[in-house]
Specification:
Rossmann fold; 6-stranded mixed β-sheet; 23 strands; about 350 residues; alpha+beta; OB fold (Dihydrolipoamide Acetyltransferase, E2P); 9 helices
Length: about 350
């Protein structure tokens, strides 16, 4: 049984098509405003798209493209949405919050409570069954929300940044819990955290401006990102262009980097086995491999990029020097010696051996 959705929401510039296999968890990544939450709202039935269709197994969730337009209401879709906030019913006990789903689906009071107790035990909060939501910590409340979602026996779980409202102590516990309970379930999870994607997702989809710009197996996307957003999460610099015999031909505006001038640039690097000269490609290299100079550095083989510094920020025991989407990590002593500040014109220098070039 699979899930497939095609949806267009013109007012929000959303135009996506994606599928999930049985028992597959897919993480949706992207900057704010990319359309991630809009996509989940369409799948959950909270937002009606202008066009498209969606199917969950044999059930048609909506079909707005044909003559007989179909729209299945949220409570009949077989989906469950877990939002950033738990949104528990404040007047019900924890047990009755979790029992609400099966009870609404027609189960008896005894059956629904038995199901609720099972899932409260699964998320390790069975001892809180008689408490009211106001008596719970943030982490406890989100665990109850997970149990409530699963108690409804959904065929598709929709998770909208479920860890974002938790503190640094509660988030790891919930992440481990989700890793366990998502096994065997089909789920879409929105996250900004690379650790969520690595721990929970079989596959990653990157969205920008309402469309899917990159997708693939989770570890492969972070090992060889093809979008600026994925590269940023993976901690890599990324330049897009055309593959050459010994690297990449790119432009000064590539990837939003603050490169000085406007001419095309050649980036020397190691070509991946699948990279062919003349095809679109990307060059990736870590900020730790970048040195900063006030003058152009010479020598072979190395790359020297003229850039304008946009920001300086602490990064562990180093200073991260940003030039748009490009970054270099240098010591505080080196930054002070160079007299760096936003607006400074410098050169980012990286050895060709540290640059990986692969097909886009």
């Amino acid at each position: 049984m699979s899930f497939h959705i095609d949806a267009t929401v013109r007012a929000r510039n959303l135009d996506v098509s994606l599928s999930l296999g049985p028992a597959e968890t897919v993480a949706i990544l992207g900057p704010n405003g990319a359309g991630k939450s809009t996509l989940l709202s369409v799948a959950a039935g909270l937002l009606r798209p202008d066009a498209g269709s969606a199917r969950l197994g044999e059930r048609v969730l909506f079909n707005l493209d044909g003559g007989s337009r179909v729209w299945t209401p949220p409570h009949l879709r077989g989906t469950a949405l877990l939002a950033q906030e738990p949104l528990l019913f404040p007047h019900l006990s924890v047990l009755d919050n979790v029992a609400f789903g099966p009870r609404s689906a027609g189960a008896s009071r005894a059956q629904s409570r038995e199901t609720a107790r099972h899932w409260l035990a699964e998320v390790d909060v069975a001892q809180l069954a008689e408490r009211k939501p106001g008596q719970l910590s943030g982490g406890q409340a989100q665990r109850v929300a997970v149990a409530r979602a699963l108690a409804a026996s959904p065929e598709l779980l929709l998770l909208d940044e479920p860890m974002s409202a938790l503190d640094i102590h509660a988030a790891p516990h919930l992440r481990r819990l989700l890793k366990r309970v998502l096994s065997g379930h089909r789920a879409l999870i929105i996250t900004h955290d690379v650790l969520d994607a690595l721990m929970l997702a079989d596959r990653v989809i990157v969205m920008e401006k309402g469309t899917i710009v990159e997708e693939g197996a989770t570890r492969e996307v972070f090992r060889r990102p093809r979008s600026q957003f994925a590269a940023g999460l993976a901690g890599l610099n990324l330049l897009a262009g055309t593959v050459t015999e010994d690297g990449l031909r790119t432009f000064a505006t590539a990837g939003g980097a603050s490169l000085a001038g406007g001419a095309s640039l050649h980036v020397a690097g190691h070509l991946d086995d699948e990279a062919e000269p003349g095809q679109p490609g990307v060059a990736a290299f870590p900020p730790s491999a970048v040195s900063v100079f006030l003058d152009a550095a010479h020598g072979s083989p190395r790359n020297s990029f003229p850039v304008a510094i946009t920001d300086l920020e602490p990064h562990g025991d180093h200073i991260r020097v940003r030039a748009g989407d490009l970054a270099a990590d240098i010591t505080p002593a080196a930054s002070a010696e160079l007299g760096l500040e936003p607006g400074s014109r410098v050169y980012f220098v990286v050895k060709a051996t540290a640059v990986q070039v692969y097909a886009a």
